[in-house]
Write the structure tokens for this entry.
Amino acid sequence: MSIHLGNVTRRFSGRDVLERISLDVPAGEFVALIGRSGSGKTTLLRAIAGLDDGVEGSGEIEVPDNRSVLFQDSRLLPWLQILPNITLGLHAPDADQRGRAALADVGLDGREKAWPNQLSGGEQQRAALARSLVRHPALLLADEPFGALDAMTRLRMHALLFRLLERYAPTVLLITHDVDEALALADRIWVMEHGRIILDRPVAMPHPRRKSVGQYDALRSEMLSALGVEAEAA
Amino acid sequence: MFGPIVLVVIWQFASAIGWLSPKILAAPSTAVVTGFDMLRSGTLLDHLAASAGRAYLGLLIGTVTGVALALIAGLSVVGEAAIDGLVQIKRAIPTLALIPLGIIWLGIGDAMKVALIATSVFIPVYINTHAGLRSIDARYVELARSVGLTRLEFLHRVVLPGALPGFLTGLRLAVTTCWTALVVLEQINTTNGIGYLMNRARDYGQTDVMVVGLAVYAILGLASDTAVRMVERRALVYRRVLGA
């Protein structure tokens, strides 16, 4: 198992945000976590990432040390050029070389010396993806990394992410509010509500996935009604 | 530069037609001639060097102290509790009010003068560097944790560059502050310095020398500010790239 959680609870000012969550994710699986805002998705991701010191809670969490977080914002340090941003905290003798290779992977070769604010939103998020992948993480935790991008850019990012994940093969936990994004990418989808995982569905369709092919529409309707959204006819 | 030029023209005109007596204020032209004479004889540069030595030594000590205290207060809860309140109290006390104690502790020599300049300089450096540290985005701190930066890397990659804009604002204030205390301090047991020069000019009623002294302060203040701004432009280049 790559991720193991046993009875994980997190509490903010007396209110349970995560309620005794137990789950296991095998190595290499891509899990998408969807849920309404306030359902506890981000709290769960932060707990798994080990970024929630000082939050009240209990339970056991076993995750690989070699994990990387992709945030909703690219979170590039504005005072560092792109290459040192990518290799930030990477303690390897060939860090620069690996950083350049990762930038080439995301199509940003030649931009090593650019400042973050010279890149477009999509480019910044690609640089953030390079920063995650350059560490060859065993676990990639992504908190709505494409949420702030326009629809076209988001589709391109999906294709890029999918291609790169085939090569690096980490376990992935992706938070999204977009059911179609989850259906396009994930091997398994969890729906979260009030601090619990209320629905757990494997997605066994081959890639690339399209609407109205295979189980797509049935799964989509199930997800949407679990989220409390009446599925549209389309 | 329109305002200053108009002022000088009116001033010169008022002096030339006799409205402004040299006993009250020397004409700009007289001050220029006097300044040029003092420059040629070397007296102006000697006094300037003496003042600059005191001012910049005080600036150096005050800046290092201000940054060190800001880092301690900004990076630890204990440091914040211990230091910030004291600095705020110091800030409320005018530097010149510390002269009597300074004399008792350090004597009437240069040590006292440099120490008092340093105490007046460290306040703006501390306040602005501290504010810069506090304004570092918590998201960057989280990023630093998630990529596993060591304490030293965190300082070098996140804290110092994040606090740099605040520090430079503080330094811009400090480079002018370091000269202000000098005028008074150089009344005490000195035989050189711009402050001494101006005080002696008062004894002889030399308003032209006073104007020269004021002009030197103005030039030094502007030059120092320009120098820090140039450093700022280079150090904060990442901020300009889009607008440039």
About this structure: The CA atoms of residues 50 and 193 of chain B lie 5 Å apart. Chain B has eleven helices and no strands. The mean pLDDT of chain B is 90.
